[in-house]
Amino acid sequence: MPTFLKSVVVQAPIETVFGFHEREDALRLLSPTFPPVRVLQKTGGIEPGSRVDLKIGPFYWSALHAAYEKNRFFEDRQVEGPFAQWIHRHEFQPTGAATRLTDHIQFELPGGVWINRLFGWAVQLGLHQMFRHRHQMTKRYCEKDSMKVQREVLGTDRVRPLDE
């Protein structure tokens, strides 16, 4: 099964980065403008049993959250949509005062091994672009929040990068 893997280091504590993904509006904040993403129905957050039904461009997509360990990982799986199989694991690792966020996706296109060999590159390209955007947004919101906390604790004239 084809695999996509992309990581980013966010200069914020793991609680901030994981907490950002637990926000009610996280999917909206992380979604690029193209293709347009519309939430049709949502039950729960990111805990197991939570479900979200989406319209992504012309595609209907329904995902079920299957696994969760606070501040470590959560996983969603497509139950209906354009892929034969889709498993997305979001992993969080502390790296000093920062957090490494890794998106690990296993996917399979309908049509079998030859279709995946012929067109898997196009999925990889789309995922690379989408997760570049998602990781930029995660850094923007989490690093901003982390700096805000430092300002409140240390005072505005003593703000410094988290890794010092």
Strand order of the largest sheet: 1-7-6-5-4-3-2
Low-confidence stretches: 156-164
Structural class: alpha+beta
- Give the biggest sheet: 7 strands, antiparallel
Compute the number of structural domains: 1
The fold-level CATH name is: Alpha-D-Glucose-1,6-Bisphosphate, Chain A, domain 4
Number of strands: 7
Percent range for β-strand residues: 35-45%
Radius of gyration: 17 Å
CATH-defined architecture = 2-Layer Sandwich
- Fourth CATH level, the homologous superfamily: START domain
Task: Report a brief summary of the structure.
The protein is of the alpha+beta class.
Explain what the structure shows.
This protein is 34% helix and 38% strand. Strand 4 and strand 5 (73-80) form a beta hairpin. It has three helices and seven strands, in the order E-H-H-E-E-E-E-E-E-H. It has helices spanning 14-22, 26-30, 113-154; strands at residues 3-10, 37-43, 51-56, 59-69, 73-80, 85-95, 98-108. Strands 1-7-6-5-4-3-2 form a seven-stranded antiparallel sheet, with helices on one face. The protein is globular. With 164 residues, it is of the alpha+beta class. The chain starts with a strand and ends in a 10-residue tail after the last helix. It has a single domain (3-152), classed as Alpha-D-Glucose-1,6-Bisphosphate, Chain A, domain 4, CATH 3.30.530.20.
